[in-house]
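Data deposition worksheet. Section B asks for the primary sequence of the deposited chain exactly as it was used as input, without tags or linkers unless they were present during the calculation. Section C holds the resulting structure in token form. Section D is free text for depositor observations; keep each observation to a single sentence. Incomplete worksheets are returned to the depositor.
Section A, Depositor: J.P.
Section B:
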Amino acid sequence: MIVVDLIRNASGELYAKISYEPQKNYLLMKWVGPCTEEEVKTASMRMYEWQKREGSKRNCKFHVHDTKELEGAWAGLVDWINNYFFPLNYEFGLRYNISILSPDMFSKFSSVELKKRSNNKVTTILCETISQAESWIFKNYGL
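Section C:
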């Protein structure tokens, strides 16, 4: 796993970490603690920058979002993700968004809502663990 970016809030606290898994060819966003909708957008756009710069060259089709340590709802961003973020990334090869579900009820609800409203470009898959996400990738794409 190669660390791509560490994202901190205005107070300097780490709230997101982006890593690339070259053997399985996916980008991982590890969310930590609470973060605002603007912080989610900022971190998400850093994923987009990587996808545009590196992901398209590497034929990276998968973004995995580990929300196990994310606190709070982000359901207000579902439309932004589906109508803005996913189409941007789709242009550079993203086809699947895999959400590792949080035990936090509000965050979990947000992931479920994102899956329900999946657009026809980027499909959202829900998993319980990263190893389950990797198994899904391998089963469907043999990576």
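Section D:
The helical segments are 37-58, 78-90, 105-116, 130-141.
Residues 37-58 form the longest helix (22 residues).
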